[in-house]
Every structure is written in structure tokens, then in C-alpha cells.
């Protein structure tokens, strides 16, 4: 690889868990792919708390999940340009689904289970009812019904 006037190469290095050191608790973090296109580089990254808006809108996240869009972004099959608004310019674009103290979770659900619901069901609702204007008595073909949105 020739970059900035120097020759070199890209290579994969094995990092053993003991080389990573002991896990430690941090106040704020996010998950991201360090190299889009390489799922092995998805990792937690410590970050400072940055409040850009009203502090009352903060919530405590207990569980977060990755969805198909996150996998497509992390593998480089979906460009950040496809993200709405200014989301493409944010450092953290993976794992926007979460469970915490934002809305009530049914008593029989764990927070881990609840984290898998928002984007899939929100997408299905938006596609069928808001954009598709689906009404009682109409039918829809669910293509690829094995994924989260298809099931929703």
C-alpha cells in the first residue's frame, strides 16, 4: 500500500484477551467498527459525556442491540451517506436500539429482550402505516420474514 509517500501493508494482528488488560467500568461508552468492512474491529470505545441539548432528555441505557442496518454499516455494505440527517457525521452510528429508563418494559420481558424491539417495530409501523398508509382489510407480502423487521 502506498500512502502519504510511504510504502507499507495492511495486516491482521491477533490480540489475545490477556493483552487487552483487565476490563474496567466506565461512565460513558459506545460501540463502533474501527475499520468499516471488518466486523472483527467492532468494539466498545470509552467516550466523554457530551451534552448538546437539554440535559432532561438523557436516559440511562442498560442494554443496547445491533440490528441489520448496524451490521450493514459495520461491514461496509451500507454507506454512512444513507443515514438520515446529520447522523452520518456522528462518531457513534451503531446500536441506536436500547432499553433503559425511557419507556416502560412489559413485566415479563428482560431489558436485554426489550432492546431488540424499537427499531424493528418502529420501522414496520412507519413503513406499513405512515408511508404505506395501510388500512384494515388490506394485505401485504412480507419478503425476508426471518429478520427483525419482517417478523415485526
From TrEMBL:
<dbReference type="GO" id="GO:0016491">
    <property type="term" value="F:oxidoreductase activity"/>
</dbReference>
<dbReference type="InterPro" id="IPR020843">
    <property type="entry name" value="ER"/>
</dbReference>
<dbReference type="InterPro" id="IPR051397">
    <property type="entry name" value="Zn-ADH-like_protein"/>
</dbReference>
<protein>
    <recommendedName>
        <fullName>Enoyl reductase (ER) domain-containing protein</fullName>
    </recommendedName>
</protein>
<feature type="domain" description="Enoyl reductase (ER)">
    <location>
        <begin position="37"/>
        <end position="152"/>
    </location>
</feature>
